[in-house]
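Incident review: delayed structure delivery

Summary: a single-chain prediction request sat in the queue longer than the usual turnaround. Root cause was a stuck worker, restarted by the on-call engineer. No data loss occurred. The affected request and its eventual output are reproduced below so the record is complete for anyone auditing the incident later.

Affected input:
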Amino acid sequence: MKVEQIIGLHPNASHPLGIHFAAEDQTTAHKLPHRKLDDSPLQKDAFVSSMAKWIVTHHVMPEAIERDRIRREALARQGLSDPTPSSLPTSDKTQKGNWAEILLAEYVAASCGAQLPVYRLRYNTNVDQSMKGDDVLAFDLDSDPVRVLVGEAKFRSAPTKDVVESLVGALVKSHSGNIPASLQFVANQLFISGKNELGEKVAACNTLFAQGRLRLDYVGLLVSKKTAHQYVHDNAKASIRRLAVISLGLSDPSKLVTASFANAGVLV
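Output delivered after worker restart:
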């Protein structure tokens, strides 16, 4: 199995992820499909600008941004500051985890045209805590068979064998549980927001799975230092046929996350 059979080709040069990251498809020492991404073409300011917009999109509903703007302006006219907590996480650990999750979601949307019908981070009741459930659930509802892509993302300032094994282990656990745990959550949010037709299609994935007509693909992303790919190559292994791992090696991953959230804070 090749990486592109699971997650498609690396985004082209018209997409920020194609502009700022180079890709090389490999196979790990244990025969798992592996896409190595590196930051050799990275233009930091331009990428941070794109990432900041994605951070806002994934965390905040557009109508909430407008309401917050109106409230802040009203308070400012009265000489008052806004006591409302930030809609974006301020915890360093949560920022890093969410950053990796958002990057993976945008990557699979760009590489294989999968839909992200619900931005799950918008529904986190405590923005400074990580959410339970699948990090990424993307859908190709028009393919034959219908396809659901389950993603797990991890950020580490330095890569380790343990984090690679944890990353792959989470996907193996999801696979053993059969239907993705967050699928009904996605369907429910679509129904609540009035997107009934799309909600029905997502909900129908349960039936398709029971009938053996649903394709489940699994992808893990490790974001870390430049040596991330080597740890993935040496330690990523699983018996699941449709599973691929992406490694993103960055020169200074923590600073990139900090800059992205700082820019995002200006947008909300």
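Verification: DSSP finds eleven helices and six strands in the chain.
Action items: add queue-age alerting; document worker restart procedure.
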